[in-house]
Amino acid sequence: MLGLPEHVTACLFDLDGVLTPTAVIHNKAWTRTFDDFLRGRDGQRPFDPVEDYNDYVDGKPREAGVRDFLASRGITLPEGTPDDPPDAQTVSGLGNRKNELLLTLIKEGLEPYPGSVRYLQAAAKAGLRRAVVSSSANTLQVITSTGLDRYLEVRVDGSTVKKRGLRGKPAPDTFLAAAQELGVTPQQAAVFEDAISGVAAGKAGGFGFVVGVDRIGAGHAEDLRAAGADVVVADLDALLED
Prior knowledge:
This protein has helices at 22-38, 51-57, 62-72, 91-107, 114-125, 139-146, 158-164, 173-182, 196-204, 220-227; strands spanning 10-13, 129-133, 154-156, 189-193, 209-213, 231-233. It folds into 2 domains: 10-21 and 112-241, 3-Layer(aba) Sandwich (Rossmann fold), CATH 3.40.50; 24-107, no CATH class. With 242 residues, it is α/β, with parallel strands linked by helices. It has 10 helices and 6 strands; from the N terminus they run E-H-H-H-H-H-E-H-E-H-H-E-H-E-H-E. A 6-stranded parallel β-sheet has the order 3-2-1-4-5-6, with helices on both faces.
């Protein structure tokens, strides 16, 4: 009924783009941050919200996204410190600028995907364990403001990554930590991801099933399959039809 193999007893959900449309506002925040930064730099084209977003920042911890995108343009900045102001020309400063813009967009209103809510409700009814796994430090704010916290038993997020020294996606550390907290083995858990780095993390961790979520189209489904997704759907409730 849930489109999963029988051996799966737990679901590990990414947040942005899987449970909530925060991927859209993350994209807007990244685009504005990098476009402002690149403006005036000779020979630098604007940030591409499809290719640059998918290749360099989607699903990654904030500072890693900054580093990887800047490296793709041949730009190196000082690391700075976590409390750098958002106008600082450092990796941390750019990351803080992006987060400042993101929080503004979240406050303007955010609703979870209805299909994802239906799937969470069905998973809870079926007795499957449920966790949210995200690199975002704003995960708690998002799940509580959208009411998703009532369906989720465990949260592993950007704060957890810093506290425990976990590697971010595409390393499997965060998913492995969530599975451990739920008391299941990786083989007993399904990973739900819309980012290539997240699907790669699910594959690298030896998880029992990896669901790719393709909400953007434009060939992204093929990229998710190539990264290791066992199945790709446009919305989670499509799995309820199986």
